[in-house]
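**Protein fold record**
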Amino acid sequence: MVSATQLSSYIHGRLQQIKGTSYTSYFGNVSILAVGDFFQLPPISPPTPLCFPHEEPLKDLWNSLHNETKLASLNTETFTIKAEDVDQKGGRVIKVHETPHDTSRRKDDTSLVPYLKLAVGARTMLIANIDVPDGLCNGVSGTIKGIEFGNSKNMPQAIYVRFDSDKIGRKARSSQVIPPEYVSCVAIMPRKETFQLKGRNFSTTREQIPLKLAWAVTVHKVQGLTTEQAVISMKCFKESMAYVALSRVTTLEECI
């Protein structure tokens, strides 16, 4: 639970000075015991990701699994959805932003991201509680079957998601007007959240699609879920974490 600056500039840099090693010798060639879970939690800001800011090589020790790679491999158009941010103070609009605020879940009280990349065929996860009794809650996953923009060029009118379980969104499907080609899907519409940036005396209302890419997700995010099949990386797992990952499926034969 320390920042990248603490690790790279203070600990890594000071050990290099003490040992008189080159820039390519991480932590001055001293063995470091790091206690933590880099597969669930990136270093706290500022800054992220965890990297060593010297000439060469620039080694990033935290990266997003393989979601970006899988998205690029789809033979469908990728859309970048830009959030719409409106600053307000005392109930009065003070600024409508062309470019959304740079936010993150760790430092700002919103789960909606400034920019969201999606495509038809992408694995996705819902990141908001829309209707918990209907199963539309934070953490449920599915596949994007359609993206409808309507009259807007930037913000989709609806993202049609076929969730992994037919039980999810059953009530929503009965009440929504769904095109015939997406009859088994749930329409996920833009959602608004109001939050306050640190050090600011105004609030911001953000409109964005409450989804994220989910070919790969953390063990923390899938706790409590049951899936028919899972591909699990056991790198650096403690016994308790391995148990959480493996127990997402009902039989060991479903693990790859």
User: Anything to note?
Assistant: DSSP finds five helices and eleven strands in the chain. The mean pLDDT is 82. Residues 1-63 form one domain. The chain has three domains: 1-63, 67-213, 219-254.
